[in-house]
Fold this protein.
Amino acid sequence: MDVSVKNIRKEFDRYPALNDVSLDIRSGELIALLGPSGSGKTTLLRLIAGLETPTLGKIYFGAEDASHRTVQERHVGFVFQHYALFRHMTVADNIAFGLTVRPRGERPPKAEIQRRVGELLEMVQLSGLEKRYPNQLSGGQRQRVALARAMAIEPKVLLLDEPFGALDAKVRKELRRWLREFHDRTGHTTVFVTHDQEEALELADRVVVMSQGAIEQVGSSDDVYDRPNSPFVFSFIGDSASLPVTIADNGVYFENEAIGIAPRNGDITSGNGTLFFRPQDVVLVSDPAAPALEGRVSTSRRLAGTRIADIDVGKPGEPHHVEIEVPLDAQAATGTTLRFRPTRWKTFAA
Amino acid sequence: MTTSAAASGRWRLRQPSVIPGFGLTLGFSLAYLTLIILIPLAGLVWRSASLSGEEFLAILSDERTIKALEVSFGTAFVAALINVVFGVLVAWVIVRYEFPGRRIVDAIVDLPFALPTAVAGIALAALYAPNGWVGQLLNLVGIKAAFNPTGIVIALVFIGLPFVVRTVQPIMEEIDREVEEAAATLGANRFQTIRRVLLPGLAPAILTGFALAFARGVGEYGSVIFIAGNIPYVSEIAPLLIVIRLEEFNYGAATAIATIMLCLSFAMLLVINLIQTWNRRRYGHGA
C-alpha cells in the first residue's frame, strides 16, 4: 500500500509541530523517520496512523483520501515505544485482540483465531509463551508481542514509534536485524521513527531526515551520508567538521588563505559559505609550501584502528575546532602543527 | 529480633532491607493496632462470651435480629453496587475531562466524608420524605423513597460515594494513554476499549472501593436512622437494634449482635482480599 502525505501542517496550541510536510512512501518500502527530539517525526507517524488529525493537508492510502478516516478505519499496525501491551491479558489474548474486537460478522471463528495466534507467535519466535502475562516477559519479548499483535489485523501499513528505544544495546541490535528480515519476508510497507542514526542507516531502504517540523532530506543511506543536501543533514548524520570559508576565483579560502581545494559540482561558486567534511576524508600535506589548512593539535587519541586528532585551526585568539583522522604513524603529538586538506567535502552558502 | 527471624528461615515474612527501622516500625504498628482495634474488639467478644451458648443462639435465631442483619447487609450491598457504577463514572469525568468547575466537583465528592452523618440523614429524610421535594416527585411515579429499605439505600449511597471515587481516581489517572491508542489502532471501538482494556485494569481499585463503601454502609448509623423509618422486621438496621438493646440494658444481646456483624464483615472483607490476591497473581504480579 502506497502512502502519501501531502502538505501536512500540524499545530499544537498554535505552535507548529509540522510545517508543510510532503512525503511519498512506496508500497513495501522500509522507511525511517530520523531526527532529533522535537523534529516532528513522531507527530508525522501518529498523523499517518490517525492518532492525530492534521491542521492542514491530506494523507492518502493508495488512491484513497484517508485524512478523515478514524484510527479504526485506517487499519494500520502501530507499535508503541513502551509496547502498550494489555497487562491483564495473556500473550495470546493480546495478539488475538484485534481479531476478537471485530464485529460479529467479520470475526473469524475461535479455532481460526487460535491458529493465527500460533502462526504469529512462531513468526516472532515466541512459541510456547502464549499463556504468559506481559509482566513475565523481557523487554525484547514484549516488543515482539506488540509487533505480533499489530500484525494480527493484517495491516496495510506497519508503523513503529521508536521500536527499540527502551531496549538495551545488545537486544536492540538483534531486534534490528530481525525486523529487517521480518520486513523482507512479509513485504509490508513499514515506517519507523528513530533518533538513532545508526539504526536508521542500517535498517531503512530510505531515510527521511527531519528537523524542526520539516523534512530536510529523503534518500538512501548512501544519499544522506555521502550527499547530504543541507548543513543540518551533514552535521546531524555522522561525524563532521565545519569551517567558515570564502569561495572566489575558483578556489576555497579560509581566513583569506587558499586551502588547496576548488569548488566542485554542487558547491557554491562564490561568496561566503561553510565548508563541511568528515574526519576520515582528509589527507595530510607534508609540503610546507603547498596550500592547506593548518592547525595546532590540542589532543590526539587512539580509537581502535585509527588516531583522532583534535585540531585548532585559524587565528590563535579565535580558533575553530575540527576533528580529523590521521594515520597511526603520523606525528600528531599535542602542540605540534599539522597541515591537511579535505579530499571530499561540501560547501553550503552561509 | 529481625535478624533471628530472617536467619531461622521459617519465619521470614519479608526480607528487611538494609535501611534500619523495620523492627521499630513493625513493633509500633502492632502495638498501635492492638491498642486501637484489637483490644476493643476483644472486649466485644469477651462481653458476648458472658452469654451461654444457648442464649447466644437464641439471640441469633431471633427473627428480628436476622431481619435487621439482612437489612443492614442487603442495603449496604446494593448501595455499594450503585456507588461502584456511578463512582467510577464520577471519577472518569473528574480525571478525563477539563471543564469549568472541575475542581469544585472534585471537592464536592468529599463532602459526605466531612458532613456529620446525622445532618446528612436529616437532610435526606426531609428531601425524600413523601412531602419532601424529591419525595413528592417520586411519589407521583409510585416510588416511596423514605421510611423503607429504599431510603436506607439512598442514605448509604450518599455516604459511600467518596470511597469509590477516591480509590478509583488515582489508578485511573495512571492509565497509560498509549494502551487506549493501541486498542484503537487494533480496531476496537470506544465501548470495547472501555470494557476490555480499561475496566479490567481498574477492577482491583473498583473492588477495593466497593469493599470500603460496603463496610462503611454496614456500620453506618447516623444518616440511616432518620430516613429508614426503623420499622422492626422491615427497615430496622442491625446497628440500631444494638442501640435498642443497649437502652434496654441488655448488654449481652447487644454484644452478641455486634459480634455477628463483626464476623460477617470480617468474612466478606477477607473474601474480597482473597479475590484481589488471586487477581494479582493471575496477571503475573508475583505472590
In short: Chain B has 14 helices and no strands. Residues 52-282 of chain B form a domain with the MetI-like fold fold (CATH 1.10.3720.10).
